[in-house]
Each structure stands twice: as C-alpha cells, then as structure tokens.
Amino acid sequence: MTSDRRRQAQADPWADDRPAPDWLGDVSAGVDAWSKRADPGRDTPEVPVAEDPEPDHDAVARKILLDQLTGQARSRKELADKLATRNVPDDIATRLLDRFEEVGLVDDEAFARSWIASRQPGKGLARRALAQELRRKGVDDEIAREALDEIDPEDERAAGRALVRKKLRSMSRIDEQAKIRRLVGMLARKGYAPGLAFAIVREELAEVPDELGMPDSDL
C-alpha cells in the first residue's frame, strides 16, 4: 500500500469502498490507527451517551469500543454489554461489533487463546476453571473448547505442582493428612480433577524432604 493510500485508510478505516488497512487483524495497531494515538494533537474526549439528547450513536459506540480494546482484548459479549450500559441502540451496537469482527478488532477465538495463555500459567488454573471463566466472558462453548484443547496436559500438571510447591512453604507445621486435604482442596478450586489433584500433591510431598533437607520422618 502506498503512503497516500495508507494515510487514506487510516483516516477512515471503516469506509467499505477502500482497501483493507495494514493493521487488519492487529488489535493494538487497529486501535491506534483509528484513534490517531500517534498524533498527540488529536483530542478524543469521552462522549456520554446518556447526557447527549441527540448523540451520534455511531461515533459514540466506536469511541466506547476503542477505549475498551485499548490495552487488552475483550470478548464480543463484554463489548456488547458495555455498549448496552451506555444506551447505544442494539442495531447500531450489532452492526459495529460485526464490523469490528470483520477487521479483526473483535475475535473471540483469539481472545480465548490469549485469556488461557495468561491465566493458565499465571494463576495455575486448570481446564475446568478456565472453561468457567470463558463462559462468564460470553465466549461460545465450542470456541472455548477448541482453545482449551491446545493446553498441553504437562503444562497444566506443571502449573498445579508450582501451586502446591508454593503453598507447602507455609505448611511446615501441619501434619501430612491435613496438608493433603488442604492442597487437594486448593487445586479443586483451581479446576483440577480429583484424581489429578491427588497425584500432584503426592508427587510434591514426596519431594519435600529432599528439597528442604529433612528426613522423611519429619513429614
């Protein structure tokens, strides 16, 4: 794309009669292109729908969506709910959300993968808990299942072991059976199936004496 055509597409990336912009599919670049964040002189003030008797609903809805997408991806339902709270008419909300999907700014499949990538290792969540979170975010079950199928079982197990290992540091004065109950309960809350939770806890407990330099009898 020539520099003139690139400037034209960035000036109004929503014009249907113009070629697809360079940022197609890139949320951050797309938000920057429309809102002109690279231009410090551009002012894009908040436009409250409820307070404007004759608002430009299209412009307001676009501003709301771009603000919501700045810094992080969001599911379509999250964005739709936000538009609803700002009294954007349903037909306008649906049309703009469809358009945002067309240009790749809204993508529930990418959102699901990104959510899992941040929550699975960061919070140690297992598939069951992640599925519940994605459902609350409004992601379709089939889309969520496809994203969850990409989780490596060994990564899930490693995340569970890391949780148990960290928790064990504060349980030195608790007897083994109490440790098992508490640790299995913790993993269950993180979405781990009972069998896997027990296996992870047993594996970590078996390594505690060596790691802390204590004899087995001290457990």
TrEMBL record:
Residues 1-56 are annotated as: Disordered. The keyword Kinase does not apply. Gene3D superfamilies: Winged helix-like DNA-binding domain superfamily/Winged helix DNA-binding domain. Residues 1-20, 34-45 have a biased composition (Basic and acidic residues). InterPro entries: RecX_HTH_1st (IPR053926), RecX_HTH_2nd (IPR053924), RecX_HTH_3rd (IPR053925), Regulatory_RecX (IPR003783), WH-like_DNA-bd_sf (IPR036388). Residues 61-99 form the RecX first three-helical domain. Residues 107-148 form the RecX second three-helical domain. The keyword Ubl conjugation does not apply. It comes from the Bacteria. Modulates RecA activity. This is Regulatory protein RecX. It comes from Nocardioides eburneus.
